[in-house]
Amino acid sequence: MEIMTGKLAIAASLLIVSVLFGQFAWITTTSDATTAQHFDEKANLALRRTGHHLLLASGDSTSRIPAVKKLDENSYVLQLSKPFDYSQLPSVLQESLDLHGIKNNYDVAVMDCKTNELQLGYNFSDYSKSEEVACIGREQVMSCYNVKVTFSSPENNPKSNPVWWTLGIGLTCIGVSYALWKRKSTPPPLAEAWEKQPIENPKRLHFGESSMDVANQLLCVGNTKQNLTYREAKLLQLFIKHPNQVLERDFILKSVWEDEGITVGRSIDVFVSRLRKLLQEDASLKIAAVHGIGYRLEIQTGH
Fold first, then answer.
1. Residues 6+ apart with CB under 8 A from 44
2. Which residues make beta-bridge pairs with 219?
3. Secondary structure class of 134 (helix, strand, coil)
4. CATH class of 32-156
5. What is the rounded distance in angstroms from the CA atom of residue 219 to the CA atom of residue 271?
6. How does pLDDT run across 120-149, given as a tens digit for each residue?
7. What residues have CB less than 8 Å from 160, skipping those under 6 apart?
8. Handedness of CA 92, 95, 100, 106 (dihedral sign)
9. Which of 123, 41, 31 is nearest to 76 (CA)?
10. Residue ranges of domains in the chain
11. Which fold has domain 204-299?
């Protein structure tokens, strides 16, 4: 009787698969025109948001951001009439793209809008590895800039297919039916063991009136929490491990940037400046510059 019930359950699942496949097999993916239009809208909003935050970061809250121009099927241009902090561009752009659900790979080219000459640029894969790009720290002349973003071709991005989605539902039904048929009254021992496994707490470093969650790259200063980039977290961790000690620039470069192969001395100053801003609410902390040598994290005790 039990075997017969199992066979009937599987047969019913196969019938469901047949009905679903017959009902949805005619459906194709969303038309290319509609998909392209939606992508254009999302890319436009993401780039305009990027421009807005770059100008705000440079102290400009009044300049008008021109409409984003589409050069070809995959390229979009945002024009900024004033210089901006290039070190902010990768994180702000990626945050804007994530916000609008754009997952395509892309190239970024920053060009002088008058001469159309390439000034700076990077590829998404470079940023995704370490959340940093080349040429950070270089000074920009007073000029307007075109930020050109070229996304990978849509053909290189996977598309959902309703037919395969339908088959997946059907196969899932079969699997569930079979599992219900074979299930025993007692829960699997493995599940019990899994429920009893302790959850490990992430490593946290305390310094001054602040703390750092190393595992999640999270900085806590008072009631403020800040997400750190990979390189910011690595540099701050180095300072925390050597409190009130002078760290030479060469030592910092070797410890924090050695995995890049090529190091730029200016990167230290840029990242120290960022950390100072993040720690400014903690009066017990100060990253002091030691002229001609390096930097020192000063921690006042009993503050």
1. 67, 68, 76
2. 212, 226
3. coil
4. alpha beta
5. 15
6. 888 887 777 777 776 666 666 667 888 999
7. 29
8. positive
9. 41
10. 32-156, 204-299
11. Arc Repressor Mutant, subunit A (1.10.10)
Domains 32-156 and 204-299 share a fold: no
Q: Are 48 and 97 in contact (CB under 8 A)?
A: no
Closest by CA to 88, choosing from 102, 63, 108, 73, is 108
pLDDT tens for each residue of 10-59: 666 666 655 555 555 444 444 566 777 888 888 889 998 988 888 888 78
Alpha-carbon distance 133 to 231, whole Å? 11
List, for residues 65-75, the tens digit of each pLDDT value. Answer: 888 989 888 89
What integer pLDDT is reported at residue 186 of this predicted model?
Answer: 47
Q: DSSP state, 150?
A: E
pLDDT digits (tens, 9 = 90+) for 160-189: 455 555 566 666 666 666 666 666 544 444
pLDDT at residue 100 is higher than 50: yes
Tokens of 217: 């790259």
**Left if phi > 0, otherwise alpha if psi is -120 to 50, otherwise beta: which for 59?**
left
- Amino acid identity at 4: M
Say how far apart CA 61 and CA 55 lie, in whole Å: 7
> Per-residue confidence at 192, pLDDT binned at 50, 70, 90?
very low
In the three-class reduction of DSSP (H, G, I as helix; E, B as strand; rest coil), residue 282 is classed as coil
The Cα–Cα gap between 160 and 24 comes to 13
Amino acid symbol at 302:
G
Q: In the structure encoding, which two tokens stand for residue 83, read together?
A: 């210089």
Cα separation, 89 vs 149, in Å, equals: 12
Q: Which residues, in sequence order, are CB contacts of 99 under 8 Å at separation 6+?
A: 46, 49
Q: Tell me the two tokens of residue 263.
A: 């190091």
Q: What size, in residues, is the chain?
A: 303
